[in-house]
Queue: 2 jobs
Job 1
Amino acid sequence: MPTASWNGTVIARSDDTVVVEGNHYFPADSVDASLLEESATHSHCPWKGDASYKTLVVNGARNPDAAWYYPAPKDAAAAIKGRFAFWKGVTVA
């Protein structure tokens, strides 16, 4: 079962991930929301749309913008709506 972890803590775990461009997108309900903090960061992908980010806060350590999601993805990326992906040192195994 794919598991995302950082700083010794499991952030998300699910058998229902969608892999896009090598990134596992976890269903929102499989992510520990208590570890996520709002971020003002946004980016744009020509085929997926506009991404929003969240900062991970684990055991007092912060990992800015380490989680991202597409609130309203374009049709070509509809499969990742309501899902989170991770980077910046987050291990997915």
Note: The radius of gyration is 12 Å.
Job 2
Amino acid sequence: MSTTGNEPTISSYAKAPAKTITAGGITFAYRELGTKGGIPVVFFTHLAATLDNWDPRIVDPIAANRHVITFDNAGVGASTGKVPGTIEESADDAYLFIKALGFDKIDVFSFSLGAMIAQDLAIKHPDLVRKLVLTGTGPRGGRDMDKVVGTTYWDILRATLTRSDPKEFLFFSRNAVGKAAGKAFVNRLKERTIDRDKDISLKAFQTQLKAIQRYGRSKPSDLSRLTQPTLIANGDHDRMVPSILSEDLHRRIKGSELIIYPDSGHGGIFQYHEAFAPVAARFLALEDA
């Protein structure tokens, strides 16, 4: 393990110390919080995201009772290496990171691109993953997933013209409720004021986008192989990864649970964090470990 029992317990993501660990020639940047011991919850993040892009209103409630770990994918933020050209290769990198930390079993909380990586990880290493939370995502080969490139660039342009954060357009509806939720979300991401992560480079971002496009155009995975308890969530109007793909995941992953939040988009779990965080925390509880 990379940590010791003598460290103080950190309960706030805004105060989680920045750490690194090297595996396979890659130095991974990560943060951890919550009570250490047992099965950790590893967070897999979204397109273009660094450690600073996790909503503390999601992370902190889960970390109240669990050991939580977030990390930068290879080639992103403060992690070294190059962004892989495929989702499967990103899953291989994630496996390197998890094993370097010394874990043989994890729970997964994932969003968007991170949930695509998590699916590939769980299929390739089924004994590693105990529970899966898949949010704002879809299956390999999902219909219209490859259109994310055009949607992303269009919303970046719209955000630039209005001097806004692109996530306000990409994650939230452009009605009054969505606009307010988007601004609140972006403000929460600024709560950490010291030791912030590096932004993703343009080249790394473009490589991730192409990997998602390739994933959307690939042959579907056999999701019947996912037998872990799985919680799926999204908004009802996801423009990045069509909401219907969450329903597709639900149909194809036996025994999975599905939550679709009304009047919300790709970032539905962030807009409805007060409702979703307790549900996710209960789902990830350790009673059946």
Note: The CA atoms of residues 109 and 133 lie 5 Å apart.
